[in-house]
Amino acid sequence: MPEPQNFSECVEKLLDDFNLYDKTVDLVSCWEFFYTKIDSVRDRILYFDRFPRLTASQETKRDRKTPDFAVLVSASYGLVGEIKHGFPLDDATFLQHLGKLKKYDQPLSFRADDKGKEISPVTHDILLIVRLRDAQETVVRIEKLLREGNPTFERRLIVFEWVYDDDEYIFRRVAGQSADFNDSTVPQEVRLSKYFGERGASLKITPDKIKLIKAAWQFCNDEPKPIYTIVFLWTKILYHLLGQDQREIWRRKNAEKGLAIDLTVDRLVAEISARYPINWGHWTDWVSKALDVLVTAGLARKIPGSPRYVVGYRNLTKEVGQPGHPALGSRGTYHPADYAKILATYICRGLREKKAKTEAQDDTQAQHKLSFPEPTNSPNSTAND
Predict the structure, then answer these.
(1) What beta strand segments (E) does 279-334 contain?
(2) What is the mean pLDDT of the chain?
(3) Distance between CA 296 and CA 347 in Å, rounded?
(4) What does the alpha-carbon distance between residue 3 and residue 107 come to, in Å, rounded to a whole number?
(5) Model pLDDT, residue 216
(6) In what order do the strands lie in the sheet with 69-74?
(7) Is 320 helix (H, G, I), strand (E, B) or coil?
(8) Do 60 and 232 form a contact (C-beta atoms < 8 A)?
(9) pLDDT digits (tens, 9 = 90+) for 107-118
(10) Taking the CB of residue 221, how many other CB atoms lie within 10 A of it?
(11) At CA 102, angle to CA 48 and CA 170, rounded to 5?
């Protein structure tokens, strides 16, 4: 949670947190579109896993690997996808981050269908996706370390760059790297080595193509910052917990009117699970952290000695400028970032007011302490004059 001393910095930090996670969701959705919506590709892979939990031999579920996505192309070949929004500059930390990719450099079991079947392919590659601005330097440094044998990879590590340009996401293989995809055993239509290597092609995906995917899968395999979860709860879940009378009030679009929703973490998780039945989130932890931020900001309160919270839910559609609300299936364009801006403002305003109130109480207590009369035996007392 950002420090509330500076209101504008507080809002900016929350929006940075939201946008970074939202961008990762977009990037994963682009690759899901490529593997599941393009006919020539979709029909030639076994499974695209948006929330992978990969296991090595003799590992427990607690030891599962959680990349950003995984693709089981065939029984002989798989792909592990990892998205990094930046590598550290100093050599020691850069090496440490690169070393984290080593956990994927071993035989792994991939999900093969929605029923839980798993297959360990003969081999798999590791796809590292980084920002365009960092891509070339990242590859140069990785190539140097690999030549020095620190670290070593048995499986191939391939680096892609991405950029959002001219209203489309563009992915391409970074020039100057020695590794290429080890996918010669799969059909040509799904050989990334042929598409991105031999042809030098780029993958280009416009936001409209991933709209339906993102509507169904609003999260990725990384833990979201609380602001992201709060936007999801505010726009997709909390409305459904209102009573009938509250919904009538809510439809008047008065953002100043907070409607009290008495709930628990378990109730929220149950509502999410009912509306998004596929298990794709650590909801108990994510929801708990989101509610705690709302409490800290004064937008909710925790009932002492109870698992219950009371959330002051408000209709923000007028502030956003939307004709309807996403929870009601509005056909208007839904921009989560717009809700993030308003909710970030409410949160930071609440933090600022709470801080001011605490400081005022501290000042009152301090003044109260200073107002006590001095003892009669004080050297400054008039009784001693």
Answers:
(1) 300-302, 308-313
(2) 87
(3) 8
(4) 44
(5) 86
(6) 47-49, 69-74, 77-84, 123-131, 157-165, 168-173, 203-205
(7) helix
(8) no
(9) 999 999 988 899
(10) 22
(11) 50
Residue located via tokens 């269908």: 113
Q: How far is CA 274 from CA 141, 240, 263, 267, 313, in A?
A: 47, 11, 16, 11, 21
Distance, CA of 219 to CA of 258 (rounded, Å): 27
- Supply angle C-alpha 101, 104, 105, rounded to 5: 95
Helix (H, G, I), strand (E, B) or coil at 280: coil
Range in 55-59, 173-177, 209-213 with the lowest mean pLDDT:
55-59
- pLDDT tens digits for range 82-122: 999 988 778 888 998 898 999 999 999 999 998 889 999 99
pTM of the entire predicted model: 0.86
d(CA 12, CA 28): 24
Per-residue pLDDT band for 351 (boundaries 50, 70, 90) equals confident
Spatial distance between the Cα atoms of 323 and 319, rounded to a whole number of angstroms: 11
